[in-house]
Structure formats: structure tokens, C-alpha cells
């Protein structure tokens, strides 16, 4: 049976740290990641699970109930098309010219033939698949180490470098959308920006299949930490 999400009273915001095997047991050595803040990270992991279970998932299910799948797909496509701009900036900063060309082509095709990104005709082309580059990857390409593993409140697995990168990603999106709102003559920036943020968050959660404490593994924290760390290493290498 999947392990249930612990309640606040059961944990006191202290993640249950399970011990397996004897003290010299190295059967899980391959899962080890530099995590000097593990007690804090485990507490945040439990907090994120509670936040997700009691707020984000109900909100996401409501979002999915109100908007039919074709509309949600259109929303996802529009957001993904807007995200091509920060991706392009990071491709250029990393000196990845081929990826820059692909991202530029995607942006032009989906903005025009895809009706401002509502549709995604570019993905139908063999060599125009969506690229995934962010500020954290750019910092890694520039030689910055990952630093200690860190579970970001609300956002999930990260590390010091990617937490800084998240701030950079947020700034790029903010500057981009402020420019768009200015060109569209939007006067009430704040209301529109908050609405956009909510839609982005619901869209993102709707397209993430992971659910806390439903992996069926007693080592979920270790597995999430390991998979995230290895994925980021591969993201920077490619």
C-alpha cells in the first residue's frame, strides 16, 4: 500500500527518518547525494507534501474539471511558447547555437502558424523538438558547482545553484511578461500578473504526474533526491 501523507500532528513538521539495515550497510550508497541539510530538507519535504495534498491537488482538480482537455492543451501550448524566449536566452548564453536555432524556429512557427502558440505545429517537425534550458543549467555550463542539495519550499527538489537559477528564471519571465503587457496596453499589471501566475502554477501541476508518498517506496526522499540530481547533471552535459 502507498504510504499516506503524514499529518501535521503526526510529524510536527519533522519528516520520519527511517533507518534500514545495520550501521555499516552500504546497500544504498548509490543513492547518496551531498545533503548536509538533510533534517531541514526532510521537514520541508513533508511540508511540501501537505501543501500539495491539501491545496495544490484540489485546486488543480478544480482547474481540470472547469476547463476541458482541449482548452488545457491550448493553455499549456501558449505558456510553453512564451517560455521559448527565456529558453532562447539561455541557449545563447551557453553558446548552444543549434539549440538556439531550433528554439527560434519553434517560436516563429508556433507564434504565427500556431496562432500565438495555441497550437504547436513545430513539434510535428522531426528536428524541431522543444529544448529545455534554464538559468540553473547556464550557471552549470559556466562552471558553477551544484552545491548542497536543497528542497525548496513549495517548489520541491533543487540545489544551491538551481535555487539561484530559479530566481533568474523568475526574473526573465517577469521582464518578458511586463514587456508584453506594456505592448498590449494593459493598465492593471498587478491583477493580470497574479492571474497569469495562478494559471502557470495550475498548468504546471496538472502536467506533473508525481504524487507525494505514492511511489510505493520507503526510500522516496532518497529516490527523488537521486533522480533530480542525476537529471540535472545530464541536463548540463547535453
UniProtKB/TrEMBL annotation:
One of its GO terms (biological process) is intermembrane phospholipid transfer. Keywords: Lipoprotein, Signal. The keyword Chloroplast does not apply. The keyword Nuclease does not apply. It comes from the Bacteria. Signal peptide: none annotated. One of its GO terms (cellular component) is membrane. Belongs to the MlaA family. This is VacJ family lipoprotein.
Amino acid at each position: 500500500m502507498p504510504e499516506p501523507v503524514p499529518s501535521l500532528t503526526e510529524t510536527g513538521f519533522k519528516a520520519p527518518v527511517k533507518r534500514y539495515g545495520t550501521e555499516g550497510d552500504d546497500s544504498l550508497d548509490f543513492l547518496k547525494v551531498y545533503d548536509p541539510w538533510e533534517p531541514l530538507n526532510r521537514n520541508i519535504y513533508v511540508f511540501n507534501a501537505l501543501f500539495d495534498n491539501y491545496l495544490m491537488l484540489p485546486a488543480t482538480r478544480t482547474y481540470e474539471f472547469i476547463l476541458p482537455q482541449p482548452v488545457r492543451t491550448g493553455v499549456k501550448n501558449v505558456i510553453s511558447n512564451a517560455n521559448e524566449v527565456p529558453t532562447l536566452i539561455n541557449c545563447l548564453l551557453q553558446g548552444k547555437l543549434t539549440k538556439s536555432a531550433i528554439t527560434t524556429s519553434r517560436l516563429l512557427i508556433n507564434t504565427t502558424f500556431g496562432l500565438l502558440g495555441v497550437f504547436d505545429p513545430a513539434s510535428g517537425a522531426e528536428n524541431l523538438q522543444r529544448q529545455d534550458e534554464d538559468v540553473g543549467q547556464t550557471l552549470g555550463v559556466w562552471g558553477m558547482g551544484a552545491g548542497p542539495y536543497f528542497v525548496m519550499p513549495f517548489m520541491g527538489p533543487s540545489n544551491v545553484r538551481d535555487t539561484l537559477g530559479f530566481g533568474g528564471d523568475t526574473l526573465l519571465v517577469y521582464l518578458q511578461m511586463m514587456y508584453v503587457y506594456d505592448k498590449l496596453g494593459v493598465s492593471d499589471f498587478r491583477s493580470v500578473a497574479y492571474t497569469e501566475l495562478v494559471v502557470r502554477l495550475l498548468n504546471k501541476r496538472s502536467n506533473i504526474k508525481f504524487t507525494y508518498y505514492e511511489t510505493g517506496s520507503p526510500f522516496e526522499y532518497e529516490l527523488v533526491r537521486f533522480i533530480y540530481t542525476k537529471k540535472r547533471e545530464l541536463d548540463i552535459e547535453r
